[in-house]
């Protein structure tokens, strides 16, 4: 197993109390924060391009797909 990965252990397949799980990870320095996403359309072109090149922005796009 990749030492960077964590495994989730569910109690059972019929666990009625667990409706969902939030899974997340970060690439420090490559993340796009909420304010940047909200203000993306209002930013100067060079700032938008820089943000869109970040790994975190690409991660958001892929999760939306």
Helix content: 25-40%
Radius of gyration: 17 Å
**Spatial separation of the terminal alpha carbons:** 27 Å
Task: Compute the number of strand runs.
Answer: 0
Layout: helices, strands, pairs:
Blueprint (H helix, E strand, L loop, with lengths): L33 H6 L5 H8 L2 H10 L1
What does this structure look like?
The protein is mostly helical. The protein has one domain. The protein contains three helices and no strands. It is elongated and about 50 Å long.
Task: Pick out its properties.
single chain; 65 residues; mainly alpha
In short:
With 65 residues, this protein is an all-alpha fold.
